[in-house]
Amino acid sequence: MKRKREEKERATAASTSSSRDDGLGSGYEVFLNFRGPDTRLTMADCLYNGLIGVGIRAFKDNEELRFGEEIEGGLLQAINDSRIYIPIFSKGYASSKWCLRELARIVELSRGNDEKVILPIFYDLNVDDVKLKTKLYRKALRKHKSKYGKDLAKKWKKALREVFQN
Question: Domains, the chain, ranges and CATH?
Answer without folding.
Answer: 2-165 (3.40.50.10140)
